Amino acid sequence: MATKIRLQRHGKKGKPFFHLVAADSRAKRDGKFIEKLGTYNPTANPAIIDIDFENTLKWVQTGAEMTNTARAILSYKGVLYKNHLLNGVTKGALTAEQVEERFTKWVADKESKIQNKKDGLAKNAVAEKIAKQKAEEEANAAKAAEVAAKNAPEVEEPTVDETQVEEPTAEETQVEEQAVKEETSEQTEEVPVEETTTEEAPASESTEEESAE
């Protein structure tokens, strides 16, 4: 009987959740299965994969086929890498101690990468939350300013009604012109000139003498 490692879909609409199973290759996708090997939740970030490592490895070693998604999951969890190392032991290229040493190092590197990704996601989530709060505060402040401006009383500027402005009458205009003329005439009066008298010079003595003779 040919067996295949594949996914069975569960969960709600829009929130899929999968079981990783070993089943008869002729069975329907969501039909009967031989053994449940783990679960896969793709909606989380990063995706959550929980499998029975040893049982899954046994199915791979016995030649079970895998769907593309199942192969990617087993590669991510290191099942395929461990199977590759064990094949090296069978061929005499590696020892069991070397297999454990290399696989332990691979697991440590993988966990470090996953943790770094989680830390980056958490940091981005905090930054996004702060940016969202700031945007909300700015929006609230703008809305409050708009409401305050709308509720503020309007200040009306005084307007001049041209129809109520009275023009001076002809009599008032004539009086004003007369006052201007009088003021001008007072300012232009001539200053009186002082009269000067000329004294006659006394006759010379010779003339008086001539008249006495």
| Class based on secondary structure composition and strand pairing | alpha+beta
Strand order of the largest sheet: 4-3-2-1-5
How confident is the prediction overall: mean pLDDT?
80
What level of helicity do the residues show? Answer: 40-55%
N-C termini distance: 195 Å
Q: Write down the oligomeric state.
A: single chain
Overall 3D form = rod-shaped
In CATH, the topology of the domain at 3-83 is named S16 Ribosomal Protein, Chain: A
Helix/strand order: EEEEHEHHHHH
Total beta strand runs = 5
Full CATH superfamily name of the domain at 3-83: Ribosomal protein S16
The number of helical elements comes to: 6
- Architecture (CATH level 2) name of the domain at 3-83: 2-Layer Sandwich
Low-confidence stretches: 193-213
The main β sheet shows up as: 5 strands, mixed
Name of the CATH class of the domain at 3-83: Alpha Beta
| Percentage of residues in DSSP E strands | 15-25%
Q: How much is the radius of gyration in Å? A: 58 Å
Describe the protein.
There is one protein chain. Among the domains are: 81 residues, S16 Ribosomal Protein, Chain: A (2-Layer Sandwich), CATH 3.30.1320.10; 52 residues. The C terminus is likely disordered. It is built from 6 helices and 5 strands, in the order E-E-E-E-H-E-H-H-H-H-H. The chain has 213 residues and is of the alpha+beta class. A 5-stranded mixed sheet has the order 4-3-2-1-5.
